[in-house]
Amino acid sequence: MNAPRNSPSPSTSSYQNAPTRSVSVHGENFAYRELGPEDGVPLILLVHLAGVLDNWDPRVVDGLAARRRVIAFDNRGVGGSSGSTPDTIEAMARDAVLFIRALGFDQVDLLGLSMGGFVAQVVAAEEPRLVRKVILAGTGPAGGPGIDKVPALTIQATLKGTLTRQDPKLSLFFTDTAGGRQAGRALLERLKERTHDRDKDISLPAFRAQLKAIKRWGRQAPSDLSEIRQPVLVANGENDRMVPSPNTLDLAARLPRSELVPLYPDAGHGGIFQYHEEFVTRALGFLES
């Protein structure tokens, strides 16, 4: 069900029951969910590889939406959005900007996780007046070490997950320790809390396009991040297998106005989900400062 844009404010809802809406962007429908107060600069969520609306940790979204207007969306060709999925990060960034403008916003904050963090970097660099502040989690700069290996790692984990009937997120997003496994299982339970109007899983062609985009990003010449003048908060787990954690430190060092959250202990790519309470507190403090 797509609620019209002018329907009652979603401010009282939680992410679990936020209505799925859609907005037309150059003839394609982009699916999104919105919640939190109506005033203030909106926070746009840019999701990870293969992620759809239902892959955001509801604790993170609800925690942020307690004080901020939060909008999650499916990029072109993903989940409930129509069209064909771009195979470059730069084209995904252009789509994100078109989506933001279609909703009528002239200034936003961005939270980019993993691949979404690549997209956020491009949007922040290319649209300095549109983007006020940025949060980058589990991500790295173009050409960062190990990023071009993400597609192979993901396919391997997906095949292994199929054979062992285990969600590949457990091995890709969390450490293989008692604490990491427990945090991973807890996230998987939270992701099932929404039982109605769930998003469609990513299609195989869209997944392939994203894998191609990530490989290209990983093989690009390292980007000059000094042109990103906005304040940026950088976070990750200390043991990220997907986008190796040294990329996080490199990002923070290269961005002129960065704040680095101390790397979360015994955590990996999904560090902001594992430490959702600490992350939300730090993110809100950063956005409001």
From TrEMBL:
Q: Which terms does the record give in the GO molecular function aspect?
A: hydrolase activity
Q: Which InterPro entries match?
A: AB_hydrolase (IPR050471), AB_hydrolase_1 (IPR000073), AB_hydrolase_fold (IPR029058)
Tell me if Hydrolase is a UniProt keyword of this record. Answer: yes
Q: Provide the AB hydrolase-1 domain boundaries.
A: 42-273
Keyword list (alphabetical) reads: Hydrolase
> Which residue stretches belong to region Disordered?
1-21
- Does the UniProt entry include the keyword Secreted? no
Entries under Pfam families matching the protein: Abhydrolase_1
The highest taxon in the source lineage is Bacteria
* Record-given protein name: Alpha/beta fold hydrolase
